[in-house]
Design goal:
mainly alpha, 7 helices, 2 strands, globular
Length: 124
C-alpha cells in the first residue's frame, strides 16, 4: 500500500511498474490511514454525499492543499476534453481488444465454466 499523497503515490507506482520488477498489487490509499486512525477528520456526511469532501479538506488545510486542488487538479479537465476530441478511429486503433460476449466464460460456484449471456447481440 502507498499511503502518500497524490500524485506522488501514482508516480511512484508507475515508476516501479515500468522498471519491470513489480510484483503483486499496489493500492494508492492517500490519506485513508490518517482518517482511520483519527489523525485527520473526515468531512461531514452531507458533504461526502454531495462529493464535497475535497472542499472540506481544502478549507481544513488551505496552505497545504490549495495548489493541488485549485491549480493542478483542474488540469485534468483539459486533458479529458482533448481526449474526447480525439477521432474515434484513432482511439479504436490504440484501444485494447475486448473479447466478444460469446467468448466470455464465468466460473460458477462449482468451479465449472458457464457461457456468459448478457442479453445483447455479440459484438462483431
Amino acid at each position: 500500500m502507498f499511503a502518500i499523497g497524490a500524485p506522488q503515490s501514482e508516480i511512484t507506482c508507475w515508476e516501479i511498474a515500468n522498471q519491470g520488477r513489480a510484483r503483486g498489487t499496489a493500492i494508492c490509499i492517500g490519506a485513508s490511514l490518517e482518517f482511520l486512525t483519527g489523525a485527520k477528520k473526515r468531512a461531514p456526511i452531507w458533504m461526502q454525499r454531495l462529493a464535497l469532501e475535497w472542499l472540506f479538506r481544502l478549507l481544513s488545510e488551505p496552505r497545504r492543499l490549495w495548489r493541488r486542488y485549485l491549480v493542478l487538479g483542474p488540469r485534468i479537465f483539459m486533458i479529458w476534453l482533448r481526449w474526447r476530441a480525439t477521432p474515434k478511429a484513432r482511439l479504436a486503433s490504440e484501444s485494447v481488444a475486448i473479447p466478444s460476449d460469446d467468448s466470455v466464460r464465468i466460473p460458477d460456484r462449482s468451479g465449472s465454466s458457464k457461457q456468459h449471456t448478457s442479453g445483447r447481440e455479440p459484438r462483431p
